[in-house]
Design goal:
Elements (H helix, E strand, L loop, with lengths): L2 H7 L25 H8 L14 H14 L3 E5 L2 H10 L7 E5 L4 H8 L8 E5 L6 H5 L4 E7 L11 H10 L3 E5 L4 H4 L9 E5 L13 E5 L3 H5 L6 H4 L17 H14 L5 H33 L6 E3 L9 H7 L7 E5 L3 H10 L4 E2 L9 E3 L11 H6 L6 E5 L5 H12 L1
Parallel strand pairs: 2-3, 2-4, 4-5, 5-6, 10-11
Antiparallel strand pairs: 1-7, 6-7, 8-9, 9-12, 11-12
Helix pairs in contact: 1-3, 1-12, 3-12, 14-16
Amino acid sequence: MKEQTLAIHAGYTKDAQGTMAVPIYQTTAYEFRDTQHAANLFELKELGNIYTRLMNPTTDVFEKRFTALEHGAGGVGTASGMSAIFYAIANVAESGDNIIVAKQVYGGTTTLTGHTIKRFGIETRYFDVNHPSEIETLIDEKTKIILFESITNPSIDVADFDAIVAIANKHHIISCVDNTVATPIFCKPLTLGCDVVVHSASKYTTGQGLAIGGIVVERKGLVEKIKNNPRYAHFNEPDESYHGLIYSDLPLPLFTLRIRLALLRDLGAAPSPFNSWLYIQGLETLPLRMKQHASSALTIAQYLENHPKVKKVNYPGLESSPHYALAQKYFPKGQSGLLSFEVETLEEARAIADGTEIFKVVVNIGDSKSIITHPASTTHQQLSNQELIEAGIPAGLIRLSVGLEDTEDLIADLEKALS
């Protein structure tokens, strides 16, 4: 099926009532046929619903539909985008290990990998996404994952998938990409060789800022990279919490299965059924909305590029962008609705953000309503001046999440704020 059809129909088999809309299975638990049925489910001899922390019929549709859009093998929903990122890391790394992360990532990812992860005994090593060859110098036998963003937030750089994937595969390391900004409509990293994709479903997936959630999706054939790989011994050795289960022996998507069976079981950051239902509604219109987001963003980027007060515009759809060639290679259908631009000073940037009316000062992206943010004083406030520079976030940087309002109205709003 084509993308727009998958977005509307994938993953849903109608129940006995024949409901056209996916039902909200707002339940915590499920009745078993008998005690033997219950025992079989807990021993994984049968697959089925046990408890909504692990699985839910509404969430199952969301997971299958998103996985289909990403052309993946399996997916698992989470309570937030940050929990999706944490689960991807915790699924492979433990105390004494290290992970490699791009410097140009969302502020929450920076604090997670730069601070919180340290307390788990995991070291983070950083590379410049514009110089992926740096990764080679950071790898050792304890490296477990390479994490980056397809389109970085808020510097709006484009990752060189081919270069990063080649290094990851050379060293038999799992590559993980946060594809929130591009969405599976504009980029499918799993088809480009990446092993795992994470998303904040709170952004473009819902499209209206209605719910917090995330998802992890793995590529087809990932088991071949993990099986008998000494970097991932815990996938190849008996899991005593499941009476000796060996994940790499299962004929199922093993990366997301382990997140479900171990991390969701023990840490519990699962999506609510109602939120999963909201994501499903958002997915139905995601292909249409992303086209409009990208079209408006490009028009606004072109306007800003010609404004005398604007020093620089970051949008890979601009022919002047240093990322234009990579954007055309990896995102030929569009480059999302996120852009950033730079003015002279922090004070000027904040005055512009405060001077808009349609653009609202909000720390979110991917909404139908347009959003303006000053990252250096909000989402990336915890970074030092040097770290801000390395992350591509100067003090005068302003981030725009272009919504679905009339483009001419949005330009008029920015014109007034810039005057």
